[in-house]
UniProtKB/TrEMBL annotation:
Residues 86-234 form the SGNH hydrolase-type esterase domain. GO terms for molecular function: phosphatidylcholine lysophospholipase activity. Pfam families: Lipase_GDSL_2 (PF13472). This is CE3 family esterase.
Length: 249
């Protein structure tokens, strides 16, 4: 009898553990299904959220693949002041130039897209125009400089011999109420470049002012923000010293 009772106890015990295991497996299955559902949901959400300027950057990279580019070129990048400089290669025809400007961008945007717009193109020199929109958006100068410094660092980690130039913000009439912030940013850029090797500063602010210290009235489009041909003629003269082999026409 003892033997029979022992068998019955083991039988009940086994049934208990079998049910427990089956319940556990069922719960795990339900949990895994829920987990996979949540993962799929979040992946879908992430994919549906486009990274700022993704489309613009793709258009630029597609154009470069289509037209080709030369390693060791001089590269200009940054916001709309660069993007709209459509005569850039014509202004300095003796040197291969790549223009990867994308309008409305900030230093943070350039940092985010630095690989396709700069690093993978392997330029010998890089001119960067960022900070204009940053100030207009209310970004603190220390944050702008942190982004610019990281950009420079990443470029020179890839190629320590690459010469990088930070272009000052320009004096736009439509943003003249932020004059002091722009002057402070330009000074911060200049101060930073003076302490770094293979990093330079290009002042476009001063040559664009009239005798009274205000932005020249005839060098901007109607929006009083973007430059017309006369404005880019000034820039051409400013940058001519970086292309000494060129002859201004």
């Amino acid at each position: 009898m003892k033997s029979v009772r022992s068998v019955r106890f083991r039988s009940v015990d086994e049934r208990f553990w079998i049910r427990a295991i089956l319940n556990y497996v069922w719960k795990m299955k339900t949990t895994l299904v829920s987990l996979f559902f949540l993962i799929g949901f979040f992946i879908g959400e992430v994919q549906s959220q486009t990274v700022p300027f993704d489309k613009e950057v793709k258009l630029i990279t597609d154009r470069l693949k289509r037209e080709g580019y030369q390693v060791g070129s001089t590269l200009f990048t940054g916001s709309s002041s660069i993007r709209m400089w459509v005569s850039l290669q014509e202004d300095f025809p003796q040197k291969p130039i790549i223009n990867t400007g994308f309008g409305g961008s900030t230093a943070a945007d350039l940092k985010r897209h630095l690989y396709p717009l700069v690093l993978q193109l392997r330029p010998a020199r890089v001119f960067i125009y960022e900070g204009d929109n940053d100030i207009n958006n209310g970004t603190p100068i220390d944050e702008i400089m942190a982004d610019l410094e990281q950009i420079v660092m990443r470029i020179q980690v890839v190629d320590p011999n690459c010469q990088v130039y930070l272009i000052s913000a320009k004096p736009s009439p439509s943003r003249w109420d932020k004059k002091e912030q722009y002057l402070a940013l330009n000074e911060a850029m200049k101060s930073y470049t003076e302490k770094k090797e293979n990093v330079g500063f290009v002042d476009v602010w001063t040559p664009m002012l009239d005798e009274d210290g205000n932005p020249k009235s005839d060098i901007f489009l109607e929006d009083q923000l973007h430059m017309n041909k006369a404005g880019y003629d000034i820039w051409r003269e400013i940058f001519a010293k970086y292309f000494p082999e060129e002859t201004l026409q």
